[in-house]
Structures
1.
Amino acid sequence: MTAANRILVPVDARTSLVTLIGDPVSHSLSPLIHNAAFREHDLNFAYVAMRVEESAVSAAVAGLRALEFAGANVTAPHKQAVIPELDRISEQARAVGAVNTIVRHEHGRLEGDNTDIAGFLTPLLPYADRLRSAPITVLGAGGAARAVAYALLTSIHPERITLAARTPEKAERIAADLAEFDASAALNVSPYESCRDEVRRSSLIVNATPAGTHPNVDDTPWTHPEDFSSDQIVYDLVYNPRETRLLREAYDRGAATIEGLEMLISQAAAAYAQWTGREMPTHVVREALRISSS
Ligand code: NAP
C-alpha cells in the first residue's frame, strides 16, 4: 500500500462508528468504500469490519446499541439472524427477510433496512423502460436472488421472471414468499438445466450465484455463451473479480454488461445516505477502489 492510497480517517473522542458484521469479513471492500466517502465529506465517522460468530450475533447488536454506534452493515451469514434483535425493520427488509443495514435513530432505536434492493436497481435504471414487460432470467435461489426478484417485481414489472435454480425447491419458496408482490404471476421457477430457451429469450440475465468468484475465476454460472446476444443485458452480482468469465463471454457476443461492483457501490451509497444524510461521493469511492486494486 502506498501513501497515495492510504485512506486516513480522523478518530477522536467524538468519532461516530459504523461497523460491518459478518463471517468472514476480512475480504470486504466496505471499509475502503465508506472511509473514502467520510474523508471526502470531512465527516468524523469511521468504518470498521468485525467478524462475528453465529452464536454472538445477539451480543454484537447489543454492543452496537450500548456503544451508540451510528449504524452497521450486516453480511452473510447474519442478514436474517439480526432481525429479532432490532426495534424495527423496513417494509422491504421484511419482504425479503434480510437486513444488510442498521441505522441508529432517535432514542437509540435500531432500525434495519435492505439496501441490496436499491443497490441492485440503480445500475439497471438506464435500461428500465426496455425491461418493462420483458422476460428476465435470474440464476440462483439464495438470499441475493430473493432481493433481486423482489426488486424486479416491485420496480421493473417485467412480463416474466424465471428463477433458474440448481435446487428448485428453494426457488419455489422464494416465489411463494413473494406472491403478495406478484399480482400478475410473473415469477416462475425452472430447473437450471432446462432453462436454455428462456435464457435465449430473456432481455436481462442476472447471475445471483457465487460462480466465478475469486479464486474460482474460470467458473461460470452459464456454460452456453452462444445463448447470449446483442439485444441482451447480462448482470453479474459477483464483484471479485470485476470482469468475470460470464461478463467477458456475454460482452464478446455483443450483450451489454453490468458488473457486481456497481451494485456494491450503490448499496453502500444507500446505507451511507441513511447514516450521514449525505449523498455518497461515488467518484471518490471509485477512485479509492481503483487505487486499491492497482
Ligand atoms: P447464497 O444465499 O449462498 O445462494 C447462492 C445460490 O447460488 C444458491 O441458490 C446456490 O444453489 C446457487 N449456486 C451456487 N453455486 C452455483 C453454481 N455453481 N451453479 C448454479 N447455482 C449455484 O448466496 P447469496 O447471498 O444469494 O449471494 C450470491 C452471490 O451474490 C454471491 O457471490 C454474493 O457475493 C453476491 N452478492 C453481491 C452483491 C453485490 O453488492 N454485488 C450483493 C449480494 C450478493 P444451491 O442452493 O443449490 O446451493
2.
Amino acid sequence: MKIAVVGTGYVGLVSGVCLASKGHNVICVDKKQEIVEKIKNSIPPIYEKGLEELLKNVVKNNKLIATTDIKLALKDAEVVLIAVGTPYQGDAIDLSYIKMTAEEIGKILKESDRYMVITIKSTVIPTTTDTFVKEILEKSSGKKAGIDFGLAMNPEFLREGNAIEDFMVPDRVVIGAIDDKSFMTVKKVYETFEVPIIQTNLRTAEMIKYTSNSLLATMISFSNEIGNTCAQIGGIDVREVMNGVHLDKRLSPVINKKRITPGLLSYIEAGCGFGGSCFPKDVKAIIAFAKKQGADVSMLSEVININETQPTKVLDLLKKSYPNLKNLNIGILGLAFKPDTDDTRESPAIKVANSLIKEGANVTGYDPIVKEEFNEVIDGKISYANDIKTLINDKDAIIILTRWDDFKIINQEMIDKLMKKPIIIDGRRMLNKKDFKIGSYFGIGYSPR
Ligand code: UGA
C-alpha cells in the first residue's frame, strides 16, 4: 500500500519506518530539510531502541523515502497519516501545525481526482477531526469528506523506549472513521498485523487515546495518594500494601496455576510522580476541554494536583534528617522522566533540583543517559558526576528519582564507605529497605513509627 506520513517526529518516524518494514511503500514528509537529509542517510533524528537498524533496512530497500515536498508525497498515496506536533499551550493544545498541514493537503486534494484517506495520528482533543480538520480540508479543497476523500483518526499507543515493539506488536488498533470506506482503507494498513481492530467514529477514537493515558496517570496519582497516607499514618509501608493489592486475581490472574504479572501493575506503585511528553500534557488538555464543555473533571484535576506536589515529598523526607539544606552536598540519581530514555520533559528531577538549589544545597546529578545538558532545563545549575560512585562520594544525602536498573548496585556498605553521612532517599521505592540500616534509608510512602 502507498502511505504518506506527514511529520517525522517521534510518532511519524516510528510509524513510517515500521509500516515500511511491513512491506508498505512509505514517503515521509517534513518541513525541516536537515531531518529529511538524516532520514535519507539512515540516521535517526531521535533516539529510540531498534530504530536505526530498521531505518537502514527500509531506506536500503527503497521502502521508505523522505522528502520536504508534500505534493510529491501525496501523489500516489492511498492513506495520508498526519503526525505533526500538538503541544499543550496555555489552556489548550496548539493546533497550528494540524491547521497548516490540513490546508496544504486540502490544496493538493483540490487538484487531484484520486481518492485518499486523510488520517490524523497526532493526539487531538475529541471533536478536532470531525469539526476543525474536516472543515479546513473541505474549505481548502472545495470537496466533501466521506464522498471525495476519506477521513479517519488512528491514535498511537507508543511508549518511549518501547515504541518499535509497541508498533510492531500492538495491543489494539483503533480506527475512527467518517464512513466505512475510510475505515476499510485504513484497515488495509494493518492487514499483516495480528491485532484486534476497533472501528469507531472519529471523536470516540480521539477519546480512547485520552482515556488510556488518563487511566494510567490516575493509577499513578492514586498510588501516590495511598503512599502519602501510609507515610502520614506511620508504620505502614506502601510497598507491602501494594504487594497485597496486586495479588487480587483481577489484577494478576492465575492461569494454569501460574501467576501472571501484567505490566499495568507497575503503574500501581508509589513514587515521585509521572512526567514525560504525554501524561501531563494529555491529562491537562482533556481537563481544560472537558471544563469548557461543562463536564465535571474534578478527579482528573486532582490527578494533576497530586502529581505536581509529589516530587516535593522526597524533600520532606530529606528534611527529616536535615531541616536546613543550605550548603549541604546532595546527589540526585536519575534525571530522565523514566528509565531507558534521554527525555527530561516534565521529569520530577527538574522540580527536585530546582527546589534543592533554591534552598541553598550544592547539587550533583548522575543519569546513565542524560548528561550536563540537564542544566538547560532547570533554573540554576548542578554539577555532573560521571558514574554512580562519584555521585555518592562525599554527599550528605542522595536521592533516587528515576527507576534505572543501574541504581540497584547501591547498598549500605557503599554508602557507609563513600558518603559523609549515609542517607538515601528512594523516590522510586526500587531498593529493598531491609538491606539498609534504620536511619539510613527513607522511601516514599513509608515512615517508621
Ligand atoms: C505513555 C503511554 O504509556 C503510551 O501508551 C502512550 O502512547 C504515550 O504515553 C503517548 O501518549 O504518546 P510514555 O510517556 O512514553 O507513554 O511513558 P510511560 O512508560 O507510560 O511512562 C509515563 C510515566 O509513567 C513516567 O513518568 C513513568 O515514570 C511512569 N511509569 C511508567 C510508571 O509509574 N510505571 C511504569 O511501569 C511505567
